[in-house]
Amino acid sequence: MLDQQLDLRFAPVRNAHPRSLSADQIDAYNHAGFISPLLALSKDEVRALRGCIDTWLEAKGEDGAYGINCYQARLSALWDIARHPVILDYVEDIIGPDILCWASAVLSKPAGETRSVPWHQDAGFWSLNPARTVTVWLAIDDADEGNAAMQFIPGTHDQGAIEMAPVAGEVFAHGIAGADELGTPFVNALRAGECSLHADMLVHGSGPNLSDRRRCGLTLRYCPPSVRIVDEGWRQGVEAVLCRGEAGDWTTHPRPDNNDITGLDSPRAVGNN
Questions:
Q1: Nearest 10 degrees: Cα torsion 138, 141, 144, 148
Q2: Is the pLDDT of residue 259 over 80?
Q3: Cis (ω within 30 of 0) for the bond into 130?
Q4: Cα distance between residue 254 and residue 142, in whole Å
Q5: Regarding beta strands 228-229 and 174-176, do their DSSP bridges make them parallel or antiparallel, or are they unpaired?
Q6: Fewer CB in 10 Å around end: N or C, the chain?
Q7: What angle do CA 17, 98, 260 make, to 5 degrees?
Q8: Sign of CA dihedral 195, 198, 204, 205
Q9: What confidence tens digit (pLDDT) does each residue in 158-210 have?
């Protein structure tokens, strides 16, 4: 399922004068493949965003079970959060001043969810070349080991595409077999309003949520315009938002007036596996 023609090599960040991240944090991104935790939203901001997300999840019902994908150009609150200056300052230190948000996903894992998200790498599923996306995982609820916080396997982002195998009864149909041999997982524990950044080839996943607490997060996918969509069919599903700088050859969308998900056609979910 991996396209070997894609350039999936990790490109280390070279930034002598970071704007918000420290040199040690950039070094951690280069060597481990992620940075966590980072403060992103105030208590009032995350409370307001949680209210929007709760309304969207309720409106979607079963159609929104586990995830609401790629509405960043259709809902004003998502468009705004994708362009939040604190988040963009972090992202700019990783990918540079020209920033596109090309996908998003509300990932709501309810209390008592028995399925896992198998270990996987993102970029091998995408029709983007080269692999230069950084994912922001923004905690809407507190996330910890008890309610199935996401986990990373540090240092797997620069190992190229790792073979996957079919799995049954989980959120995805495929996962990385033998991931326990790749290293000790890091539990990405975040308080609501905090975020992490991870590279697009970092191995990650999450277990079942056997607690009595929901675990909801928002992923935002960012890349520079030097990244190209290499499949025309896939291009039709991308509704990118220009967050900073220049868009290059990308088609981008203005801020929507609407924040009501009711009656909206579902976008084609690209990038949220």
A1: -90
A2: yes
A3: yes
A4: 31
A5: unpaired
A6: N
A7: 125
A8: positive
A9: 999 999 988 876 888 889 988 889 999 999 999 999 999 999 999 999 999 99
Q: Is the pTM of this model over 0.90?
A: yes
Neighbours of 17 (CB within 10 A): 6
For residue 3, pLDDT over 70 is answered with no
Alpha-carbon gap, residue 90 to 19, rounded angstroms:
8
Q: Concatenated DSSP letters for 110-129?
A: -TTB---EEEE-SGGGS-EE
What are the residues whose beta carbons fall under 8 Å from the beta carbon of 4, sequence distance 6 or more? 161
For 117-145, write each residue's pLDDT tens digit: 999 999 988 999 999 999 999 999 999 99
Q: How many CB atoms lie within 10 A of CB 169?
A: 8
Here the tokens at position 270 are: 């690209």
Tokens of 23: 């040199």
* H or E element that contains 48: helix 43-60
Kindly state the average pLDDT of the residues 212-228: 97
Q: What is the gyration radius of the CA atoms in the chain, in angstroms?
A: 17
Q: Hey, what amino acid is at 197?
A: L
In this structure, the chain runs to a length of 273
